[in-house]
Design goal:
A 16-stranded antiparallel barrel has the order 1-6-7-8-9-10-11-14-15-16-17-19-20-22-23-24. A two-stranded antiparallel ribbon has the order 2-3. A two-stranded antiparallel sheet has the order 4-5. Helix content is 6%, strand content 56%. The two termini are 37 Å apart. The chain contains three helices and 24 strands. It has 425 residues and is mainly β. It is globular and about 65 Å long.
């Protein structure tokens, strides 16, 4: 009933918005609005001190496995960016954006890779309700936190921060659903938003039932049943204020949903079924030194709680202990933009809390799960940039429980053509 009520409210808001715009302002010739079209290529050369065959078996203990390299979940094969030693064609991103009529705009982002084609985003947006309200529907990146909404080609580093990737995967919260936002009529920027999403994120949420007999033929129950319909809810408040040449942007976010994490085809198969909660806080401070140079400090803190049952096989016996995970982490980065061409930056990532409690018993986890990254990049223009990045990752462990210190050098090229909308701050 709650899901039906929330969906009905969003639909009613859209219908109401059609009456807000006066009739005399509804004249519109759609043929005059040819979509903006752009194509973005991202490629890289990777030199990692771990072989490709070994990297996919590494894990952040108690948090996630297969973080680096391609890995499978059920029938799907997922390739992360910069996956192989040597050359990588990470993706070609096709972006289309246009006004539809006086009430709506539509945007589409399509990813082409050697693994196939994916609709990364496809959504409509409407400001027709007025009163600072905006409605969005379709598939889109959630506004949870700061980084989640941004596309890969806008990141300041070639890879996602450790805590984001460990909790949410390389693509973050990218879901089908509906969003409503309200910007307050205040002298500073103040926005509140709410989203109801399908909840398909397989690293923390997930809404697909799983056959437990894949783990053990004698499994009871035989299936871990997932909930039908939308199962993920996201809310956030963001505020920004300018002080001279300095802009401060901060926000708090919360997400809650059903969780079905399927690792039934792994070397040590498990399936987690339960509830998931995710908390976030972000702070960005940008100080402009002149028209082209600036210093930007960006930080985010994430904390999650997974509470449910973990199905597994223990020496041929099917087991289903209760599982409670309380985990948190952060990243903080400093970016110096020297001029129109040169930019450089440092980032620190860490997992702060990693409490794993099985059947009421705490399972000891290693500490020192951190990562250090440095980068320098050169822009030939606003359409092309080349980045050299080095990272030391101390958070990965092999199947024998031994820490693997991973040194990675990435040379990245990101080149675009066509008209592309400006990116948000």
């Amino acid at each position: 009933m709650k899901k039906i009520l929330l969906s009905s409210m969003l639909c009613s808001a859209l219908v109401y918005g059609l009456d807000v715009l006066p009739a005399e302002k509804r004249t519109f010739d759609q043929s005059k609005f040819i979509p903006d079209i752009s194509l973005i290529m991202d490629a890289s050369y990777v030199d990692r001190n771990v072989k490709d065959a070994d990297v996919k078996h590494l894990a952040v203990p108690g948090v996630v496995h297969g973080l680096l390299g391609s890995h499978s979940h059920g029938d799907d094969n997922h390739a992360t960016y910069n996956v192989d030693n040597g050359f990588n064609l990470n993706y070609a991103e096709l972006v289309l954006s246009s006004s539809v009529d006086p009430f709506f705009t539509m945007d589409g982002v399509f990813h082409f890779s050697e693994n196939g084609v994916e609709i990364e985003e496809l959504f409509f947006t409407s400001n027709a309700l007025g009163y600072g309200t905006k409605v969005k529907g379709g598939k889109f990146n959630s506004n949870f936190g700061y980084l989640n909404e941004q596309h890969h080609h806008t990141w300041d580093f070639a890879d996602m921060p450790l805590v984001y990737e460990a909790f949410l995967g390389m693509h973050g919260i990218n879901e089908t659903g509906a969003q409503i936002q309200w910007t307050a009529p205040t002298p500073f920027y103040l926005m509140a938003g709410f989203e109801i999403l399908q909840g398909e994120n397989e690293q923390m949420f997930g809404n697909q039932s799983v056959d437990l007999t894949v783990i053990n033929a004698a499994a009871i129950p035989q299936t871990a049943e997932a909930s039908d319909g939308a199962g993920l809810y996201v809310g956030y408040i963001k505020a920004s204020h300018d002080i001279g040449d300095t802009t401060i942007l901060g926000g708090i976010s919360y997400a809650q949903g059903d969780s079905m994490i399927d690792h039934s085809v792994d070397e040590e198969p498990t399936v987690f079924s339960g509830d998931a909660k995710l908390y976030g806080a972000d702070l960005v401070i940008l100080h402009a030194l002149d028209s082209y140079s600036s210093i930007k400090w960006q930080s985010e803190f994430l904390a999650r709680e997974l509470d449910g049952i973990q199905y597994a096989d223990n020496a041929g016996t099917f087991v289903s202990p209760t599982m409670l995970k309380k985990q948190s982490g952060l990243y903080t980065q400093l970016i110096y933009t020297h001029d129109k061409n040169w930019k450089m930056g440092l980032r620190y990532d860490t997992i702060l809390q990693n409490d794993v409690i099985e059947n009421g018993v705490t399972i000891e986890q290693p500490d020192g799960l951190d990562k250090y990254t440095a980068m320098v990049e050169y822009h030939t223009s606003e359409f092309a940039r080349f980045r050299l990045q080095y990272s030391r990752n101390n958070a990965m462990f092999d199947e024998d429980g031994e820490r693997k210190k991973i040194d990675t050098i990435i040379l990245q090229a990101n080149i675009s053509i066509g008209a592309h909308a400006a990116h948000s701050f």
